[in-house]
Amino acid sequence: MVLTKQRSTETPELPSHNLIGIPIIAVIGVGYVGQHLVDLFSSRYGVIGYDVSPSRVEQLRREYRGVNRITISNDPETLKVATHFLISVPTCLGPNNTIDLSHMQSALKIVERYARPRSIVVIESTVAVGTTRALLGKLARSREIYAGMSPERIDPGRKWPPAQAIPKIVSALEDVVPGSQRAIEQLYRSVFENVISVTKPEVAEMTKLYENCQRTIAIAYANEMADACVNFGIDPFEVAHTAASKPFGYLPVFPSPGIGGHCLPVNPVYFMSTSNMPLLQQAHETMSVRPSKVASEVLASILEDNHRAHKPNHRSRVLVVGVGFKPGQSDTSHSPGLQLLRFLHQSEKVDVMFCDPFPSLDYDILQRLKQGYCTSDPRFCSAPTCLFEYGLPCYKHKFPEGFNTSNLDRSHIGDVVYGKRITECKKKGVIALTYDDGPCEWSSDLLDLLKKNGIKATFFVVGWRICNRGKDFMENEYTAIIERIIDEGHQIGSHTWSHKSMDEMSSEHRKRDMLKMELALGNILGFVPTYWRPPFNACKTKECLEDLGVLGYHTSIWDINTKDWAGDYAYAEDQFLTSISSAPSSESSWIAVLHETHERTVHGLTQWMIDRGREQGYEFATMGECMADPEENWYRYLPSINTFHPK
After folding, report:
1. Which of 178, 199, 220 finishes a domain?
2. Residue among 436, 513, 547, 559 flagged as catalytic
3. Fewer beta carbons within 10 Å, N or C terminal of the chain?
4. Which domain holds residue 436?
């Protein structure tokens, strides 16, 4: 029923000069970047994901089980049927900060074995300027291979924009093999929405290094500002947030204990290997020692406090929250948190614990500390589940008071499906307006508008927002919003407690998140919903859907995505009107997703949609009503002895 513009799912033909049989794309190196390439290109072609790590191959095989277009292997012989090769292996640093291209060279030996004339070979990894030509020029000329460079731009942990919407830079050794640029550009245009073609690989290489190293310099500058603030008793984060209010001429950057990951700590070395860059060199050196500088200052402050306020033999305990290189990531490459942890531990002057469920415990420092994993307070973070949403402010980790629903009867009720995604209504002639991410400052206005129009809607609410701003659970204005939604006949559904991707959580974390949400709602209403909506539409895996089905939830998606969060209300109106006009109201029905956290959605778009819907002969319904589900099935009621209702 979705009427948004979609690319054909048929395998597109590449230009005739590039056609060497049915295209099969080989992705060499299926880490974080490589997996995105597998996902994107498998929507159009057969894909072979090749990785040398047996454990990674097994992990990916489990993940892609049943996906016919994807083959995962660590056997090079699998690549003999490949027609095109995308290289996304790590580019690392060797001893004494030297460039290490060993992974790239190993990958190219494999590619050289199987590439044939008119094969496309593209380096996706970040490399120094001139590397693509040096590594691929001779092979391209001798074998008539279309070689080029297309630097990856994936940001780990970022959900928007999706990978295919990030502008994709492509380049080719056109001067070596004519036709290369067109062939590579056509391949990438088949899966990316915006392809930017540059004149030669050196431009693409320089662009990637310029992008990333700019951020290194900016963070170093932000840290210098933070250090300067100390002498004046100024909060550097207040300065940075205030400066970010300027809508032009300023790049919002905030102080940090360092930089981590595979890019920012490494790319300056690659950039400086071919160019003299004193400013970048100073920023890189400053950021390299930043974690130990911060750790030293923290330790000095703790010891001074001990001397002043405690007995001389007092030993402080330090909790380091987050050792991945950024929130929500398991990767500890060059992680400032890990470096800080190691410094404090090696000082032997404080007891150290860490809190982060994502990283592997393979590191020696984490192995030694795992017995002291997390704090002992289960309301904040308790081993071994820990603080899986540690990127949130502290109060958002706190379990709300209320009836513990872990033993609630979750037997399936009614005829609406469990364990699968619901994307369309059963009942014809209705539109279900559904609102995500509340409650918020615009919720009361929205309820007023719906009441004025005699409309019933569905609100998928976020748990921590109910307990907003760290106030006591039953003493903030949003609890009244929740009550009003029910009192005025609307439906409430869950949008999780933390508003994080459920696909990326373990089964235990998913359950924990939903139970916290149930505590929040159950404490106000005396019941919990049976309908929920995954944040970012991120519950697509079989495991996630099954977990929520076991918990007794209907996974509620949509078939009209207004994308109102993007602020393009002309697009939102076009999506809605095109959809509802595509068939008579007697033959169709729709589920529209909106976000009450956006003022123009409340004060404009909603009324417009109501008016257009009525003009087309539609009635408006809740999610349950559009599924022809009796109201008694929308909620599970808690034992009355344990419920609390403020009325």
Report:
1. 199
2. 436
3. C
4. 421-642
